[in-house]
Amino acid sequence: MGIFEEIVTTDTLGRRTGPRTRHTIEEKLRIVALSKKSELAKAIRYALSNWVALTRYCEDGRLEIDNNAAERALRAVALGRKNWLFAGSDDGGERAAAIYTLLGTARLNELNPESYLRYVLERIADHPINQIEDLLPWNLLGKMPELRIAA
After folding, report:
1. pTM over 0.70
2. Is residue 141 domain-resident?
3. Distance between CA 113 and CA 121 in Å, rounded?
4. Radius of gyration of the chain (CA)
C-alpha cells in the first residue's frame, strides 16, 4: 500500500472521508525524504496550505469536487470571443450581447433557444410594445410547452 493510499478513504458516493485528516498526511510526509525545492514538495505544500478549501466538499454534500459545470458554461464565451471581434461596431457588439444574453436566458429556463428565437421573431412585429415582456423566456415557460428542450 502506497504512502497516500492509506490516508484517504472513500464513501459510497465516491467522496473522500474518514477520520484521517491533514495531520495524518503531514505525519506521513515526515517519513518521506523530499527536497524542499522539488515539484512534489511544492504541490504538497500548496495542498496543505489550501486544505480547508480543498476539502470543503466533504463537509457539504451540495458542493462539487470540481468546477467542470462552470467551465462548460463558459466554454461558449471562450469559443465565441474571436467571432465577437467582428461585430462591426460597438453598437453591433451590444446588440449581439443582448441576443446572446436572451438566448442564454432561454436555455437557463429550459427552452430550446432556436425554437424560442423563431417564436419571438414570428410574433414581435405585431406584438404591442407595452407588452414586450410577455415574450421573455420566463413568461413563455408555462404557456408554450412546445418550446421546451426535449428531454
Report:
1. no
2. yes
3. 12
4. 25
What distance in Å separates the CA atoms of residue 99 and residue 147, rounded to the nearest whole number?
Answer: 17
What's the rounded Cα separation, in Å, for the pair 90 and 121? 23
Statement to judge: residues 73 and 108 lie in one domain = yes
2 lies in a domain? no
* Alpha-carbon gap, residue 31 to 27, rounded angstroms: 7
The mean pLDDT values, 10 residues at a time, for the chain of 151 residues are 46 49 62 75 86 86 86 78 74 85 88 90 92 89 77 61
**How large is the angle between the packed helices 39-49 and 51-59, nearest 10 degrees?**
60
Q: What would the DSSP string read from start to end of 67-116?
A: -HHHHHHHHHHHHHHHHHTTSSSHHHHHHHHHHHHHHHHHHHTTB-HHHH
